[in-house]
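Quarterly update from the structural biology core.
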Amino acid sequence: MTNRILNVCMTLRMNATAVHMSDAVSSHCKCFYYEDCLGTSAGFPSKVKENVSVCLCHLSACVSAYLSDRPTPQMSSFKEFAVFVVVLHVSQHALCVEVEVDEGQESVLLPCHSNVSVGSTVLWGRSSLRVHARDQSGDVLQHQDHRYVNRTSMRADALHGGDLSLTLRKPVINDSDNYTCTVRQFGKDQDSKEVQLTVKGQGPDTGQRSGSRHRRRNRDDPPESYSALELQVAEPPVQQLEVISGVESVQLPCRTTAELHDVVKVEWTDSGDRKVHVHSCVPEEPEDQNQVYRDRTEMREDPLRTGNLSLTLRFPTVRDNRTYTCSVYSRAGPPRVETRVELQVRAQQVEVDSGAESVQLPFETTADLPEDTLVVWWCDEPEPAKKVHEHGTESDQHEVYRGRTRMREDPLNTGIFTLTLNRPAVRDAGTYACRVYGAGLIFLREKTFQLTVKERRPEEDENVDNRGRRSFTDPTPLMTDQSDR
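Predicted structure, tokenized:
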């Protein structure tokens, strides 16, 4: 691959020189000389393969821009070579596609297709920014750059069908750049695609681009079928929904005014392509709901008559942070997507000063749970995870928490799983979760907390006693030194 690119760059240089345009073309091209393609003229650095697609993007784009600016009869051979560059680009599976969209559009689709297999992940990036990531379990957005939060999404079956295209909502001029779609397997890059996005402003000069090419093509210019993509977005935009961990239930909204008389099935799926809930008009339809959602979902009665296809999800947890899709299936034709909802279950924030007598992580849920119910408190972060408290036993409790934790008596009958942590210290800060399981370790409940323990300054000890206090920014009662009621 490296040698082929070297030959392309050198040939481009010779062709440009042959028509006495070396200086002119190089002024247009960011990636003209082969030294620029490879990063150095003495050797082939390891980063070459990562930059090949970007390099050829610039080659094809800048040559086309130059030809459009200065069309002359002498350029025929140069035009042929420009096409050759693009053909080589495609043949090497490093296709650079240009996507153009007007600012203010609802969304734009950045296309990417690749072969995927078990263990594959996909990462969309822009320079050093992480735009979107996805693995077999769903979207991975913990390290997503802030400017793309709640603006990106991928197909639910992306890592099954190989359509890794990215939907970017509400594109703005500053989004214009080269985006990379990288497929990885077990930590190693397997494939990479480049998409050049240009977002045009809506000012008086609508022909002005904000990307690397600043000239709008004329109608008489030859078509650039290899570098342009007409955009059509068929799927509805993603609705955003946020709740705090520990709520009884959350409703994923879906209402439609479309005719549903020929619909035979309504199906909710998550971004991991798992069946969340199925409402079928066919009695013999097999039950294929994923066990993660078993006994946790419900739809209203007669949804096809009312058009209310909303789904109620009981006891949502941070592990339910996914994009959910509601689709309807008719007797004829493909399924139709009615809505997409991105659910964010946030950890409850708890704050306390170090040196306080105790802090409480409050958790109340439905009562009358079976006697064999398992209730365990964990500290998930910082890693490795540590067992904080288990109802009814002290086995495997981490030594850091021994003698410092307690729960109320009879929590299974009261539904009160609140944990009291004595003498909180700075090292106790982290992410805590209370998990409730039924027989066979079937998930029943979960609530997550983000505990912040502030270091007390010496001067504060003169004015504030060493009892826990409530933060004015946190509605949760943090601690008391009173006995449990």
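The chain has four domains: 2-91, 96-200, 238-345, 348-462.
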